[in-house]
Design a protein that fits this description.
This protein is mainly alpha-helical. It is built from two helices and no strands.
Length: about 50
């Protein structure tokens, strides 16, 4: 194999692993186990910012 072929093969492998892991993450996502981000309280309040 030439250097160009190995480089393209490495790039395709990286893309396949990246896309595959993203798909696996989405497929195995359990909404019931995770808390929504909107329920997280802010680190400060408006009154604290003003003073």
């Amino acid at each position: 194999m030439s250097g160009k072929t190995l480089t393209l093969l490495a790039i395709l492998t990286f893309v396949a692993v990246t896309v595959g892991s993203f798909v696996w993450f989405i497929v195995t996502w359990d909404k019931a186990k995770e808390e929504p981000v909107t329920l997280i309280a802010p680190a400060y309040t408006i009154e604290e910012r003003i003073t």
